[in-house]
Amino acid sequence: KRKKNHSTAILQLSIGNRRLIFQLLQADFIPVWLHPFLADPRHTFCGVSIKDDVDKLYDRHKLCVRKIADLNDLARLATINSQNGNGGYKYMGLKKMASAVLGKKMEKPLNVTLSKWDVVELDHDQIEYATIDAVVSYQLGYTLCTPIFFVRSQTLS
């Protein structure tokens, strides 16, 4: 389940081996480089239910994210391709999708999920949680957009 303020309190980015956890609600200003970076059509930002988060980023912070891919849409496409048109795909959260697609177990402790994300200083568990969330979203997007994944999915069914 999505946290109400989590997606707008922080911005989580993972690109290759780099991570950024930016506390939007604690920032006095948005870094000048962030606007063109998010609006660059060469960058695709992936996440579960990402459109809701992107809408909130624009409404609350005037950050425009130009190119997005919802991980459930990508997974649904891979599933439909692998099942020759069988639309039996069911919506998955990030934790379940990480297991199904990447074979990785994600720990998402409820006490961290439901913690206060609008605090001045995130604690170690929150930073770890947000970082893992960003990394797994990146890995899923990369995997689901790789043509070999579609070939592998088709041969497994």
TrEMBL record:
Q: What is this protein called?
A: 3'-5' exonuclease domain-containing protein
Q: Which UniProt keywords apply?
A: Hydrolase, Nuclease
Task: Quote any Pfam family the record assigns.
Answer: DNA_pol_A_exo1
Which is a Gene Ontology cellular component entry for this protein? cytoplasm
Gene Ontology MF: a single term: nucleic acid binding
Domain (3'-5' exonuclease) ranges: 32-140
- Which processes are annotated in GO (biological process)? nucleobase-containing compound metabolic process
